[in-house]
Design brief:
The chain contains two helices and 36 strands. The chain is mainly beta. Strand 18 and strand 19 form a beta hairpin. The N terminus is likely disordered.
């Protein structure tokens, strides 16, 4: 069924974004533009396939209930994007998730807009130029019961499509498998799926897998439960997020490997949400609640950073405009910085390539997608956390002294403006630690970030130029 929680909390966020000047994180300084066909398009769902290919869906941020039909794709790391509509109109279906397979093939699941039930799978094999139905006429077609929540491909051949419980499958979830790339789909027998609780159903886009693993998948429900498979969907198990109310919705799931994962959930009373965070170390069989939530935890989306034990998160809305990372399995979260940016989605493909989606403003050309530009992640040492860079005088007339933190090693120096653009870049080598490096900037007056990358160390500071 419809993922209600984030829909409620995201409504109207674009108006807030346009009313305040955003300052992107200096670690996410590559700003890209999917060129949505509306003035304030927002990224709804994002799937980064590899360091070149990203697929995402968008919606009209000024009228979130009207158009969820857009998609965008890049095949050159985000330098350029193509986009369009998955369906012929915006009134029949609402996209419930997108799954990129490679640079030309992607799948979406969608449910019927007017009746808020049933659904279809659609796919493209030509980069989104055309889309066609990939589900047969028996899938997700039980009125008032069926609901297409997720389509997921563990490999280009093996896929799983998940829907709500239906009586014709013994009251169990409507789950299908394919082993031929979606050419045919087979219903998983209800005997292989745990019995749902009363009123329990799946949620749109609330699922995850582990890159490179062809056997494991997890999805969440509106009753604080996690369903999971270890054999590519043939059989399923279920676990309970004990410590949260029974009415807790699972909002996000992320796993760094087949054992270690996080779940973010929430309950909503009116427009007030209460959040819960859980950790597993046994593949989701059991969960431990993280009772003290770090204020830097982003509550719109979380993801694993492949090749590391780290997680990333993003947030939007009042008090949660944040992009952050955790090095200790969700106990604490470190902000990457930035001001007034509404982050809606995030995904990484390795420890140095990731994208975060927000709102695009075609009037101010604020972009809407931010690409990670910091040092490689996943090195669990104190130096992996950005440290202060000694820069003076501040304010400056453009002539700046930088006390170098490291001796006789290559250092990359960047100067970044408030739009996240690198306005100056150079390499510094063979200078002793503690020395003063003199830098003269020919830039307009304003606030700038001075960032220095030294292997796996990051040093940063802000400076005003008058």
């Amino acid at each position: 069924m419809k993922k209600q929680v984030l829909t409620i909390l995201s409504t109207g966020l674009s108006a807030m974004a346009l009313a305040q000047t955003p300052t992107p994180s200096p670690f996410w300084g590559i700003i890209q533009n999917p060129m949505w066909p509306v003035t304030a398009g927002g990224v709804r769902y994002m799937d980064a396939v590899n360091q070149n290919v990203v697929w995402c869906t968008g919606y009209d941020g000024t009228a979130p209930g009207l158009a969820y039909n857009f998609f965008a794709r890049t095949i050159d790391g985000g330098n350029t994007w193509n986009n369009g509509n998955v369906f012929a109109d915006t009134n029949t279906y609402i996209i419930s998730n997108i799954e990129g397979v490679n640079d030309t093939i992607a799948w979406v699941s969608a449910y019927m807009k007017s009746s808020q039930d049933r659904g279809v799978l659609y796919y493209t094999t030509n980069g989104g130029v055309t889309w066609q139905q990939g589900s047969d006429n028996t899938m997700f077609q039980t009125p008032g019961q069926s609901f297409a929540n997720v389509v997921c491909f563990l490999t280009p051949s093996i896929g799983i499509a998940m829907g709500d419980p239906i009586s014709s499958n013994g009251g169990k979830h409507e789950i299908y498998r394919t082993i031929d790339g979606g050419a045919t789909w087979t219903l998983v027998p209800g005997s292989n799926i745990p019995t749902p609780l009363s009123g329990e159903y799946g949620l749109t886009n609330v699922y995850t897998k582990v890159d490179g693993v062809s056997t494991h998948m997890w999805f969440g429900t509106n009753k604080r439960r996690i369903f999971y498979t270890k054999n590519a969907g043939v059989t399923w198990s279920v676990s309970v997020l004990t410590g949260a109310p029974t009415s807790m919705y699972v909002n996000e799931i992320a796993f760094t490997d087949t054992l270690n994962g996080l779940v973010l959930g929430s309950t909503v009373s009116g427009t007030v949400a209460t959040y819960y965070l859980f950790r597993t170390t046994d593949g989701g069989a059991s969960w431990t609640q993280i009772t003290s939530l770090d204020p830097n935890l982003g509550k719109n989306d979380i993801c694993a950073i492949p090749g590391t034990t780290w997680f990333a998160s993003v947030g939007a809305g009042t008090g949660n405009q944040v992009i952050s990372y955790s090095t200790d399995h969700g106990q604490t979260w470190n902000s990457w910085g930035g001001i007034n940016v509404q982050y809606l989605a995030i995904d990484f493909v390795n420890n140095q390539t990731g994208w975060a989606g927000g709102f695009e403003d075609q009037v101010q050309v604020d972009g809407g997608i931010y690409k990670y530009s910091g040092a490689p992640l996943g090195f669990n040492t104190v130096s992996s956390i950005p440290r202060n860079l000694d820069v003076y005088p501040n304010p400056s007339n453009g002539e700046i002294n930088i006390k170098l933190p490291v001796a006789k090693r290559g250092m990359e120096l960047q100067v970044i403006n408030t739009l996240g653009q690198v306005v100056h870049k150079e390499n510094i080598i063979n200078i002793y630690a503690g020395s003063d490096y003199k830098l003269k900037l020919n830039v307009p007056a304003g606030v700038y970030v001075i960032k220095m990358n030294v292997d796996n160390e990051v040093f940063i500071n802000k400076i005003s130029v008058e």
